[in-house]
Design brief:
The protein is mostly helical. The chain contains twelve helices and no strands.
């Protein structure tokens, strides 16, 4: 039985009435299938968060959850089932959080994908913002970490370069450089694509890198200006 058949069965268990064991090893794959189904559900419910699923959000969903001819119909069924309501999205967030608890970079990738869907129509509503913040909390991100991620998408708090790099203003120059290099490495487009970032979102990765580079340059310039000149 193919993985996507297992996912279909798992999705039926998640979204609908119980499905009887098929006797062909479904249990061995159900965790992976449940994870994929939960990811799809999060994306679909993100599109529904403001009460209306628009064509732009469906397109953004397809960009995040890449499909081929064999899997498109299955993903579409998941999407249609999950987008009927936002109820239960915390449950799916917990499934994803548990699966990736040792890989916060992947959790941030998922959150990036949800922001991509939320921004598809050009605006993030209050309902969508609440959805994103709640998912981030379930994922284990602190308020400061969520503000950093949000800033990379919405441009808020853009006047705080320390927040963008996730460091305190009193950090030493050496530790600042280390934090910058870590942030740059974690968000480099090549690395994100290696983690499975859809090619349609490379522009997002490039945008995030530009923000990180600009924040680091701003801090260096401010510190240089504060240093006493040697006559």
């Amino acid at each position: 039985m193919s993985l996507w058949t297992h996912i279909s069965l798992a999705a039926a268990r998640l979204f609908g009435p119980p499905v009887a064991d098929d006797g062909n090893g479904r249990a061995a794959h159900v965790d992976e299938a449940k994870l994929v189904a939960a990811l799809v559900a999060l994306g679909a419910k993100m599109a529904k968060a403001d009460g209306q699923v628009r064509d732009e959000e469906i397109l953004a969903f397809r960009q995040v959850f890449r499909t081929d001819a064999q899997t498109e119909a299955t993903i579409a069924r998941f999407f249609d089932l999950a987008r009927q309501t936002t109820l239960g999205y915390q449950r799916y967030a917990r499934i994803v959080a548990k699966a990736f608890r040792a890989q916060p970079g992947l959790l941030e990738d998922v959150l990036d994908g949800l922001f991509h869907i939320a921004l598809a129509d050009g605006i993030v509503t209050a309902e969508e913002a609440e959805y994103l913040e709640t998912v981030a909390m379930v994922f284990g991100f602190s308020d400061r970490e969520f503000r950093r991620i949000r800033n990379s998408h919405l441009g808020q708090d853009a006047d705080d370069p320390y927040l963008i790099l996730g460091v305190d203003p009193d950090i030493s120059d050496a530790h600042l450089k280390t934090a910058y290099r870590r942030a740059a490495a974690e968000n480099h487009p090549d690395r994100l694509m290696a983690r499975g970032l859809p090619k349609e979102m490379v522009g997002l990765a490039t945008h995030k890198m530009a923000i990180i580079n600009r924040a680091y340059a701003q801090i260096l310039e401010e510190r240089k200006a504060r240093r006493p000149r040697i006559s």
